[in-house]
Amino acid sequence: MYFAVLDAMRSGVVDPALRARLARLIADARPRADDMLRHLMRVLDAVARHARETGGRPLIPPPPAPLADVIVELSAISPPVAGRLAGDTVAEILRWPVEWLQTRGLTVGKATQIDCRIPGRQ
To answer: What phi and psi values does residue 29 have, to the nearest 5 degrees?
Structure first.
């Protein structure tokens, strides 16, 4: 579901079947999962609104060339990350988004350098 929402953002197209499937998941989810899934629904709705307003342009335009460096700044940190801010922890959290970038040709694959910036830390 996560990759499908990212693809909707990249393409500017929201598949009605995807939205219906997400609505079913929300109806069946427990309260915490429900909140996360509702966030994905808000993203899909924003993609659809943007597509209507711009004639179908993607919400996230592709970079002019594959990225060799990615800088990630974490603006808020909450458990379970807060107690164990080792670089490996942040890298694991970012594994899916980075994999998505790589599979869509937006980064240069395994050679991409990822710099994680955490507020209040060097």
So the answer is: -80, 155
